[in-house]
Specification:
Order of helices and strands: EHHHHHEHH
Length: 149
């Protein structure tokens, strides 16, 4: 059997980013700040606002992306939010304790999935005059990038 291969566009992939929070792992930032700074979280609204101040800021986002280390992130958070440096350090260094795997059973499917559920992209091709490359191209490109390093 011969399989026709679509041309795979060359790509210079430097990083692959996986966002696991609330997808593969439970991530509840309000629970984190309530545990480490209960005095800053007297109610749900305050906890949400404080969690945003900690985790939605560039300081944490750089740490989350691997662009800043834990000591630098802790020092920045403590200074910016006027927090006790040791308590921030403790929060940052035990963040893994707050990440718990999400079970497949947490995502029940109402409809039974067919055994072959590949995306039919013909409507996309007709509407936008654009043909998507075969999925094998993406797999091939990713594996080549991973194993050629």
């Amino acid at each position: 059997m011969t399989v026709a291969r679509a041309a795979c566009p060359a790509a210079d992939i430097r990083h692959i980013v996986f966002d696991f929070g609330a997808v593969v792992l439970q991530w509840k930032p309000t629970d984190v700040v309530k545990r480490h700074f209960p005095e800053r979280c007297p109610d749900a609204a305050a906890a949400q606002a404080f969690a945003r101040a900690v985790f939605a800021h560039g300081d944490w986002q750089q740490f989350d992306a691997g662009l800043a280390d834990a000591p630098t992130t802790g020092a920045r958070l403590a200074a910016r939010l006027e927090l006790d440096a040791q308590r921030v350090h403790d929060m940052v260094h035990c963040i893994d304790d707050h990440l718990q795997p999400i079970a497949s059973s947490d995502f029940p499917s109402a409809a039974q999935r067919p055994f072959n559920s590949r995306l039919n992209s013909l409507k996309l091709a007709k509407t936008f005059d654009f043909m998507l490359p075969a999925w094998q191209c993406g797999v091939e490109r990713a594996l080549t990038e991973i194993f050629n390093k």
